[in-house]
Structures are given as structure tokens and as C-alpha cells.
Design brief:
single chain; globular; disordered N terminus; Poly [ADP-ribose] polymerase
């Protein structure tokens, strides 16, 4: 008898007919997404490049329209996977081009779009181990994955096991569904939660890898005992995994952007303005420090919908705060090189802070911001890139949901802020600054 048969034999013998029917319904509800993903992967392999591009684009667009039979966590994970797949396929087509160093006779100034694109490309390559390519027309993956890469909603747990072969899970629906159902039940029991709070995001090759998230548990990295117990009970290894940042130094994922991601209507400078002014709704007032000395390249923000109260500057209740973010995050080098294992994370994760409801909570992992762009440069979050004889830094000017900002006392001293989830961040301008 095979190992995989032994896994379920005893459980099947002890189940009543009603329990089996109920379990089948739960399995159907939970894993139709996994089944669809496996079938998509199989169909995709047999298509020519131009059909793969259209198929992946359609899948991304359809994903945005889906409201049923898929959780938000599954949607975020699948979208990241599809974008990475799309860029990998585009690399093999005529739809992308590399960004090269500007010619020596070009005007090397901070308001030059070509210079900005080159500096941004080099910064992302250095800080995120990702390749930045220009695509044509609709073949764009946008800026969200650059700044949002460090959000804790862009990471999950990965369980790697040799107990069951990937090919078996791929080919046999009943075996796959029962194995995943059993895995969810074990995870739920270990963490004392409902199994519905465990999202199975994917199964992939490399032994067998199950990507999953636990919705109600945020600070899993500090719960090493439960992780070790899970590894023992399920007979495998658990690691922390970021959707976009790859742990292998030599392997890079690609980011695709196109010129329609920019909107020159919102290009601007701030040299004629004072050092700062007070902004925000009455219950979230703050000092906005103008990015004097920078040139700002406006981004296309139409994807955020018709309601633009978040970006207005009139103090309305839905106005989001302006903060600045470099292309790197806290401890980014160790994050990339250490495969996102516990203990290599961010500096202020375990600090106490007050959340939007007045409760004392941990800061947690997330996206780092400063309220002054110069802090990004001075503290190494936007180290300059050399272009011929000049040095430039790129910084994202972003609006963030003020209710979701976290800041410990230690962070206040440095003017640092953290936003846990990428959905609470909206980049709307890229700044270029010449560093003397």
C-alpha cells in the first residue's frame, strides 16, 4: 500500500456517510480554485507565446471581476503569480524591451524621463533583485508590486513535503482534495482556529509545496513552537515566502511597466513652496514636508476608481496621508538572502503601538515610510544610482490610509511609519533627486 493511501485509510473507515457528504461539500467549496489553477497551468503549457499572453491577461482581468468562490487572499496570491508568469512569457516576445543606460550626450537631469526610468530600474535591481522592463500597450503589471512587495498581505507560509508526490496531487483530484483538507484540519487544530481561516493558495512542484495563509494569525514568525509542531505533525518543512521577492540571488522576477502607467499632467516641482504645511482631516492632522529639490513624475491613478477623495487636499474625512518610500525596505538584503526565514525580518516588528481602535498591538511587518523624503536617502532606503557623472535617487510619493499607519515610540524618534498591507498604500508620484 502506498504512503498516500495509508494517509486516508483509517479516517475513511471511521467516517459516517453524513460526515463524508459534509466533507465533500467543504472540499468542493474550498478547492475548486486549486483545481482551476492546475487545469490552467496544463492548458497554458501547450499554447504558442501569443496565445499564452492573451490567456494570462484575460485571467488577470477575470480575477478582478470574481467575487464568489475565491477569498481575497487567494485573489492576491493568484494575481501575483499570474503577473510573474505574464512577464516571463513576455520576455520571449516582441512586447518588452530593456532599459539601458542613457547616452552620454543626453541631458542628464532629474526631470528627464529616460534618466528616471533607468535610475528606477537600477534601484529595483539592487534593492529587490527584480528586473524592470518596459512593455507596450496593455501589457503592464503596474507600480503596485514595487511598493507593495513588503506588505504582509504579500507573503504566506510554504509547507514543503516528500510525503506525497506532486504528480499524484496534480493527476488525482480525490487524493489532492483529501490531502489538502486533512492538511487544513491539522493546521487549524495546531493554531486552535476554524479550518475556514486557513487559505490554501497553491500547490507547486519542488518536492510538494503547499502555499497557505492563516487569516487570524499575523505574528507567526514569533510562534516558532507551533511552526516546529506543524512540521512534525505534517512531516515537512515550513518557510515564510514573499509573493514577489525571490530568495535566490541569481534568479530574478520581472516587473512590467509601460508609459501609460505615468501621467505627465501631474509632473511638478516644489522649490517655490515653504518647508511644510499642515494637512489632513481634523482627526488626522499632520505636517506635510514638501519634497523640495525633487522633480515629481505623476502616475496614472485611474485604477483606484472614480472616488478621488483619498488624494484631495481639502481635509475631507477620506483624505489619505502623504508619505515617502524608497525602493528598499528594512533589512531587505537579509530578506532576499535568507529565504524569508523567521528572525530575518524587520527592525520594529515587535514594538508596541496603538492601532486605529486605541488598542495596544505589535507594529508587525509591512511597508516602511518616512514623512520627509530626505530621511529615505540619509537612512539608506533610497541609495543613489550613478548615471555618468551624476547621482540620483528615486522615491515613491504615496498616499496611505491614515487609519492603518503604525508607529512605535522608537519609530517616532526616526520619523518612520509602517503600513502592514499593500492595499492601504497608493503610489501616485515618483520623485527624482540629484544627490550631491
Amino acid at each position: 500500500m502506498s504512503i498516500t493511501s495509508q494517509i486516508f485509510k483509517q479516517k475513511s473507515q471511521n467516517q459516517s456517510q453524513s460526515e463524508i457528504i459534509l466533507q465533500k461539500k467543504v472540499i468542493d467549496d474550498n478547492f475548486s480554485y486549486i483545481y482551476h489553477h492546475i487545469q490552467s497551468e496544463i492548458r497554458l503549457k501547450n499554447k504558442p507565446i501569443h496565445e499564452q499572453i492573451k490567456y494570462l491577461q484575460d485571467d488577470i482581468q477575470n480575477l478582478d471581476k470574481q467575487n464568489n468562490n475565491i477569498t481575497q487572499e487567494e485573489k492576491k496570491y493568484k494575481k501575483s503569480r499570474l503577473k510573474i508568469q505574464l512577464m516571463s512569457v513576455l520576455r520571449q516576445s516582441e512586447h518588452v524591451k530593456s532599459i539601458i543606460i542613457p547616452e552620454i550626450n543626453q541631458r542628464i537631469e532629474k526631470d528627464n524621463t529616460n534618466i528616471m526610468l533607468y535610475v528606477l530600474k537600477e534601484a529595483i535591481s539592487r534593492d529587490q533583485n527584480r528586473e524592470f522592463l518596459l512593455t507596450d500597450g496593455i501589457h503592464s503589471c503596474g507600480f503596485d508590486s514595487i511598493i507593495g512587495v513588503y506588505g504582509q498581505d504579500q507573503q504566506c507560509l510554504r509547507f514543503r513535503t516528500k510525503e506525497v508526490e506532486f504528480k499524484q496531487l496534480q493527476l488525482y483530484d480525490k487524493l489532492r482534495d483529501e490531502y489538502l483538507f486533512d492538511f487544513k484540519e491539522k493546521v487549524a487544530k495546531i493554531y486552535q482556529i476554524e479550518s475556514s481561516e486557513v487559505d490554501i493558495l497553491d500547490i507547486t512542484e519542488g518536492s510538494t509545496i503547499i502555499s497557505f495563509k492563516i487569516r487570524s494569525k499575523i505574528d507567526l514568525e514569533n510562534d516558532k513552537k507551533s511552526i516546529e509542531f506543524l512540521e512534525k505533525v505534517c512531516n515537512g518543512n515550513v518557510e515564510f515566502y514573499n509573493y514577489f521577492v525571490t530568495a535566490q540571488d541569481k534568479k530574478r522576477t520581472e516587473i512590467g511597466l509601460e508609459l501609460n502607467d505615468f501621467n505627465s499632467k501631474f509632473n511638478m516641482t516644489w522649490d517655490h513652496l515653504p518647508e511644510f504645511e499642515e494637512r489632513g482631516p481634523f482627526n488626522h492632522r499632520y505636517n506635510y514636508y514638501f519634497p523640495k529639490g525633487c522633480y515629481g513624475f505623476g502616475l496614472n491613478i485611474t485604477k483606484y476608481g472614480q472616488d478621488d477623495n483619498w488624494i484631495k487636499m481639502n481635509g475631507n474625512q477620506d483624505e489619505w496621508r502623504i508619505l515617502f518610500h524608497g525602493t528598499s525596505n528594512s533589512n531587505v538584503e537579509s530578506i532576499i538572502k535568507a529565504s524569508l526565514k523567521p528572525g530575518t525580518r524587520q527592525a520594529y516588528t515587535n514594538d508596541d503601538c496603538i492601532d486605529e481602535y486605541g488598542r495596544t498591538v505589535k507594529v508587525g511587518n509591512g511597508i516602511y515610510f518616512c514623512d520627509n523624503f530626505m530621511t529615505c536617502i540619509k537612512d539608506g532606503y533610497a541609495n543613489p544610482i550613478k548615471v555618468h557623472e551624476k547621482n540620483f535617487s528615486t522615491i515613491f510619493m504615496s498616499r496611505v490610509n491614515p487609519k492603518k499607519i503604525r508607529q512605535s515610540l522608537q519609530m517616532k524618534e526616526k520619523h518612520y511609519f509602517i503600513v502592514n498591507n499593500s492595499e492601504d498604500v497608493r503610489p501616485y508620484r515618483i520623485l527624482m533627486y540629484e544627490v550631491n
